[in-house]
Amino acid sequence: MSPRLTTLPNGFRIITEAMPGLKSASIGIWITAGGRHERVEQNGVAHFLEHMAFKGTRRRTALQIAEEIEDVGGYINAYTSREMTAYYARVLESDVSLALDVISDIVLNSVFDPRELEIERGVILQEIGQALDTPDDVIFDWLQEAAYPNQPMGRSILGPSERVESFSVDDLRGFVAEHYGPARMILSAAGAVDHDKIVEEATALFGHLHPQPARPFEPARFATGERREMRDLEQVHFALALEAPGYRDPEVYTAQIFATAVGGGMSSRLFQKVREERGLCYTIFAQAGAYEDTGSITVYAGTGARDVAELTGLTIDELKRSADDMTEAEVARARAQIKAGMLMGLESPSSRAERMARLLSVWGRVPEVEEAVARIEDVTRDRVRDYAARMATQARAALALYGPANDAPMLETLRTRLAA
Question: Known catalytic residues?
């Protein structure tokens, strides 16, 4: 069945897709307010707000929020990304109304108790500390900062400790007032759902909200930058970002197929050359990520201090060589991987609900699956080669290194090698 979309007079959007044969559903509220919508003094507040939403409302305590969903065997969670904040639940068909009531309650009626704020502040500071102690987590934040310096897109979603230590209840309420307007909210549900019933219930819950004017966000500007953090670790953690298309760019699928071909699995070029043939690492991969107006292809590997120079050189050479000898078989395999990943994901109501919310936020519509498959199938070997050649010539890249990285080449050396 195709998705059904209803927009309330205040701009609040409701999109659902029934999945015949399922006895469960995923339902949530996606809000187009994330890390990139924060001012510098607000960095981390969107994530703090997401945590505090579960700490009690005017109708429910924190324990009651958890109990009401778990008493019926359901699951409730949330996340903050650079472009969205999501609150969602997975429940049985008979409990969809309950899930919607609980989610709407935490989005609209959180009390932000100052005592709970202090407790959760400690939790988030622990989360920041844990991330800093996990090299293959923190390096991606550093890479983002190097690629988008001095702009919201480059800041950590968690925020720096000093910001988190200073946030007040007023800061959280201020961010809600600025960004949690109805036109920036999307109710997305998939599985055993009844569209008309959800619209009726959502209208009662969200229809009274007053429209808010759109707030523009700062456009992202990919820059060349490097961050190198020296530490006595067992490995050097290496992450390289290359500028790539955003969601609205027709070349976004070409970039995804290129990234998958060079580093998307055990059969990929980087895995075979760097790990299987040379034994320089345990983990190496490439992936493409996209936002509304920008994107990046990221290569990550962990290697020994003595091997980092060879690993980085081989990585650049494989990226560059793909412009000349990427084969039909490699592109066909990458197309199949991306198509299969998308279609397999659509078998999950949670993945389907998230996909609908994301596409609706970017495009204002949810393209049919067949349209996405056709765009994947349209990417030819020549298009991938041409994309690789342009990427190498432009050599727009950012670099992050963490560990004993004394022997790692500088970014300019890698860029010169890529463009040569």
Answer: 50
Q: What is the DSSP string of 263-300?
A: HSSTTSHHIIIIIIIT---S-EEEEEEE-SS-EEEEEE
pTM: 0.94
- 391: tokens are 């990427």
195, 188 Cβ separation under 8 angstroms: no
Residue 69: name the closest of 78, 82, 58, 81 by CA. Answer: 78
- The gap between the terminal CA atoms of the chain, to the nearest Å, is 51
Element (H, E) at 237: strand 236-244
Percent of the chain with pLDDT over 70: 100
CB neighbour burial string for 349-378, b if at least 16 within 10 angstroms, e if fewer:
bbebbbbbbbbbbbeeebeeeeebeeebee
Q: How confident is the model at residue 213 (pLDDT cuts 50, 70, 90)?
A: confident
pLDDT at 1 over 80: no
Task: Pick the closest to residue 258 from 280, 282, 290 (CA basis).
Answer: 290
Q: Is 190 left (phi over 0), alpha (psi -120 to 50) or beta?
A: beta
Measured distance CA(235)–CA(187) in Å, rounded: 44
SS3 sequence of 188-205: EEEECCCHHHHHHHHHHH
Q: At 236, which helix (H) or strand (E)? A: strand 236-244
How far is 236 from 20, CA to CA, in rounded Å? 49
Give the pLDDT mean for 377-399: 95
Backbone angles phi, psi at 369, to 5 degrees: -60, -35
Dist CA 161 CA 201 (whole Å) = 40
Give 5-73 as a DSSP string: EEE-TTS-EEEEEE-TT-SEEEEEEEES-SGGGS-GGGTTHHHHHHHHTTS-BSS--HHHHHHHHHTTT
CA geometry: angle 326, 329, 333, nearest 5 deg: 105
In contact, 54 and 87? CB cutoff 8 Å: no
Q: Tell me which amino acid residue 385 is.
A: R
Q: Give, as one character, the DSSP assignment of residue 157.
A: S
Q: What is the DSSP letter of 86?
A: E
Residue with the two structure tokens 């966000």: 217
